[in-house]
Task: inverse folding
């Protein structure tokens, strides 16, 4: 039984946000934090820019206030120079400088009048009329001092100097206050810029810290959850690496990790089923290999026996083939002997036919030999006795011809006997010739006897024909037997080759059986090794 860390979750599984959703949320928090920090930074930068702008304006106002103070002092010096100099060139130079200083004074006051500081603006506006008065009085003094022809002593100019000096003193006394106001505005702008820098720095750092802490907390929460769930998965995988397949993980949330754990559990279940099936198949394969080894051994033993029997059958078939070839040779010899007998029988039949013709002639001759009939009667009796013996010998020849194996020898004996009888008949015929004259009286009896002889000879001729026919039939039978024996010899050779091929196949079967047995042993060894490997896993 498999041990589960928390088992499979039955029913509706507890669902939660997926890893992707949590990472997106974490990224969103990070983006919001970055935007917030960026917004704070932008706001602080804007404040710094405003403070810096105010500082620049204050610096410019301070510079312009100093320019107003310097310009009014120079303007006063230009008037005094034009009044006291006796050199016309210097006087004209002083007049030109007076105009330039007047322009500087006016432009500086106009710039101060547009300052962001209200006090500076008020003072600049208040000094505007006074400045125009001073410039006008100064120009009047210089203009009067330039009357060298009409007022060489510059009396009119000297009379106008007190009024100019008075207004110039008023202006000179008012300008320091404006300078101080500009300096105060500058100091305030510096302080504001420093405060803006500090505020922006503090807010930016604080926002960054807050965003960092929030991101760290959210990330820590996500990482801890993932680490805890992934740690259990890692433990399962380590157990699998050690060969323990009975571990299962907790699915928990239906997120990527949960699906991964469920897939891992399913994979382990299927892997366990696979290992169990592999073990069963391995055991069956081992059992089948044992049976195959037994069958291969039996097949080898039977193949060896069959090979021995095939070798013995091949040897016996070879002996049969040799015997059949010997029988064929003997049958050929017998056929040749029968053909010789047939030729001899045909020749004997021809001789018998000739004898019949000779008997006919003898009958005609005997008819005129009446006087020797008595002696011919004796000769006829002898011939009759010879005929009887010939008849008996012919019968014996017929019997001997019916014997297939010994026919040739028997016929040779009969032929010898016939030859002896023929010799005796010849001697008797000589006695008959000697006694022809005395045989006329017995002509009638001789005629009768010769006729009887003719019948016997005809019977002999018929028997010879019968013997010839039987010999011809025996010749045909012998030829057919020789042909059949030849075919049997050919078939026997084919049988011998087939038995030899069977013996070779049986030997090949023996080798295959040995190879099959070796293969079965290797399969059994592999199955045993596979079972040993499977025992290393705990399912």
Result:
């Amino acid at each position: 039984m498999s041990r589960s860390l928390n088992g499979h979750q039955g029913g509706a599984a507890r669902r939660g946000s997926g890893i992707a959703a949590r990472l997106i949320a974490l990224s969103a928090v990070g983006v919001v934090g970055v935007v917030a920090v960026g917004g704070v930074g932008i706001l602080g930068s804007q404040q710094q820019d405003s403070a810096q702008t105010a500082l620049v304006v204050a610096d410019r106002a301070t510079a312009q206030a100093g320019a107003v103070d310097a310009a009014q002092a120079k303007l006063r010096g230009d008037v005094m120079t034009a009044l006291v100099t006796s050199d016309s060139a210097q006087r004209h130079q002083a007049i030109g400088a007076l105009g330039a200083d007047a322009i500087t004074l006016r432009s500086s006051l106009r710039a101060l009048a547009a300052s962001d500081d209200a006090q500076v603006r008020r003072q600049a506006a208040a000094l505007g009329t006074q400045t125009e008065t001073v410039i006008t009085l100064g120009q009047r003094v210089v203009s009067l001092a330039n009357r060298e022809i009409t007022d060489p002593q510059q009396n009119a100019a000297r009379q106008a100097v007190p009024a100019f000096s008075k207004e110039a003193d008023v202006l000179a006394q008012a300008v320091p206050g404006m300078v101080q106001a500009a300096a105060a505005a500058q100091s305030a702008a510096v302080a504001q810029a420093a405060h803006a820098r500090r505020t922006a720095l503090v807010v930016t750092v604080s926002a960054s810290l807050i965003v960092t802490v929030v991101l760290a907390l959210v990330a820590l929460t996500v990482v801890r959850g993932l680490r805890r769930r992934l740690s259990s998965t890692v433990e399962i995988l380590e157990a699998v690496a050690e060969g323990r397949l009975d571990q299962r993980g907790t699915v928990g949330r239906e997120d990527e990790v949960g699906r991964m754990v469920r897939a891992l559990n399913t994979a382990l279940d299927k892997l366990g089923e696979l290992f169990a099936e592999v073990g069963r198949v391995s055991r069956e394969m081992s059992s089948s290999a044992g049976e195959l080894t037994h069958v291969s051994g039996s097949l080898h033993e039977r193949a060896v026996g069959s090979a021995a029997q095939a070798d013995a059958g091949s040897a016996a078939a070879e002996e049969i083939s040799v015997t059949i070839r010997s029988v064929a040779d003997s049958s050929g010899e017998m056929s040749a002997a029968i053909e010789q007998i047939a030729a001899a029988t045909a020749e004997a039949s021809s001789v018998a036919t000739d004898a019949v013709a000779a008997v006919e002639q003898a009958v005609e001759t005997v008819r005129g030999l009446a006087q020797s009939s008595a002696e011919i009667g004796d000769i006829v009796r002898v011939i009759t006795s010879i005929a009887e013996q010939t008849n008996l010998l012919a019968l014996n020849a017929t019997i001997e011809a019916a014997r297939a194996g010994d026919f040739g020898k028997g016929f040779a004996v009969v032929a010898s006997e016939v030859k002896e009888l023929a010799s005796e008949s010849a001697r008797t015929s000589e006695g008959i010739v000697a006694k022809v004259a005395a045989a006329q009286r017995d002509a009638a009896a001789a005629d009768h006897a010769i006729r009887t002889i003719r019948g016997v000879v005809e019977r002999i001729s018929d028997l010879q024909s019968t013997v010839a026919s039987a010999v011809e039939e025996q010749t045909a039978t012998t030829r057919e037997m020789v042909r059949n024996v030849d075919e049997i010899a050919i078939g026997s050779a084919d049988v011998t080759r087939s038995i030899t091929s069977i013996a070779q196949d049986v030997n090949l079967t023996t080798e295959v059986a040995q190879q099959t047995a070796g293969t079965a042993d290797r399969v059994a060894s592999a199955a045993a090794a596979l079972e040993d490997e499977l025992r290393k896993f705990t399912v």
Residues 117 and 185 are 7 Å apart (CA to CA). The radius of gyration is 82 Å. Confidence is low (pLDDT under 50) at residues 1-16. Residues 16-241 form one domain.
